[in-house]
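Quick one:
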Amino acid sequence: MRYPKLVAAMFFFAACTDVSSTNIRTGGMTARIRVTAVGNGTTNASATINVGSSLTDFVELQSTDTLKATVGTSSQVMAESKVLGAISYLTSFTGQDAAGTQYTIALQRGASDTSAPSSTCTLPQPFTITAPASSGTNFSRGTQDITVTYTGSGQPEPLAWTATGDCIQAASASISADTGSFIITKGTLRAANSADGGSAESCQVTVSVTRDRAGTLDPAYGGGSTVCSQARTFTITSAP
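Output:
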């Protein structure tokens, strides 16, 4: 059992504060907006709004304040999701995941302050992952490379991968060249803290590969980012 990870998460969420949007001007908000096509026809739009540069003070949209996502002629109000004080806004679209598809995320406010209607981005080129194969059923963390191949290479946007699982420390890295393959070299995935038994365990590890294209954040915000992404995932079994 990995209590340290759970305790760290509990401390983070315990520190979160929710602030009503009616008390914050748009220029005092930092918006982090991401639109992600996941490869099955679904595209997820998400946004978090924080107070200034804080990562733990979340803005909760109240009164007439809303976030709306638009693609083509389809618009949807983004629904609030609150997990132990951490607030995000979410919605999903189907069949709108082709390269170059533009999404707009609009913060609509009442007469009391300025709206931010024009945060936009366009989806980058999609790709398809070929799940890696090992010599057996498991990948040894210390002795086996993980070779990943994919279609749709040769694009200008950066690629990166992340790996998460119960028996490993979370890992991530950028992919230096978009050539159609990359290697997660042996030793890159490390066992979870040996004090909780992770070094001797095997587990399912989820690897996510993303291609990000930066968009344009509405200038009414005080800061933040808008990103459109293609993301694909696969799972492996990670072993000592």
